Amino acid sequence: MERKVARVLKSRLTIEGAGVRLKRVFGYDQVPLFDPFLMLDHFGSDNPNDYIKGFPWHPHRGIETVTYMWNGEVEHGDNMGNKGVIKSGDIQWMTAGSGVIHQEMPKKYAGLMQGFQLWVSLPAKKKMTAPQYRGINKEEIATIQEKGLKIKLIAGKINGIEGPVQCLATPVEYLDVELENGKIFEHATPKKWKTFAYVVNGSIYADDKIIMPEQCVLFTEGDFVRLTPNEATHFLFVTGEPLNEPVAWGGPIVMNTQSELSEAFKELDEGTFIKSGKPSDSP
Questions:
Q1: pLDDT in tens, the chain (283 residues)
Q2: What CATH number corresponds to the domain at position 158?
Q3: What strands, in cross-sheet order, belong to the sheet with 209-211?
Q4: What's the sign of the alpha-carbon dihedral 125, 128, 131, 134?
Q5: Model's pTM, two decimal places?
Q6: What is the count of structural domains for the chain?
């Protein structure tokens, strides 16, 4: 059964961190529409004033974040001792688990600095797992290519090829797709998984509805998705198994109950938030 369009959302301007201007594709208002995905941010500007102040030290608990850079560089540091720079084409995959305090600071870039950050909720049984971090070089990302189609496989498996990100939260597939006009994108999906596509450049038809740049299309349940380009198009395609758990969300911390959320912020105030400080280079 082909998936149909359930909803189309337009990204909206949001200011986060120390004053970073970004486009929020979906977030707090859409829970639980995108379960297990909590948020997708699209950051990008050719004006360094829009991003240079970055995201100074801040906490996370109960989630995984996948940061994917298209153009530019972001410097990372955390309480576990991890340090590094995510460069064009690279990925930062972080399991916040029981608690991480980190910073993400973009560097000035000549041209359009652009990237994406996806939040995935951890299930209740893994909310307090030990934090993990991995910086993934662009050479580690497999590219699947045929005439008119190019897929960078960030997470999931296609034709026996596996992406480098393997979320602890739940099974996830995350594709970066470039589609030429005249080439149809048809992709099988587990029937119950939440599935969406976010168009960055160009436009595509989904279920006879045209999806324009900076629009996100959320699909109904089904066995496959068919997307037809209206022109050469570049989009993100993401699908994952829902957790079907309650969500208690407070800024950078996402738990299952309000009492768990209150406890997390109490620990932040008391200085007991960090449960594991052992450096980790890979999950």
A1: 999 999 999 999 999 999 999 999 999 999 899 999 999 999 989 999 999 999 999 999 999 999 999 999 999 999 989 998 999 999 999 999 999 999 999 999 999 999 999 999 999 999 999 999 999 999 999 999 999 999 999 999 998 999 999 888 889 999 999 999 999 999 999 999 999 999 999 999 999 999 999 999 999 999 999 999 999 999 999 999 999 999 999 999 999 999 999 999 999 999 999 986 543 333 3
A2: 2.60.120.10
A3: 185-188, 224-229, 204-206, 209-211
A4: positive
A5: 0.95
A6: 1
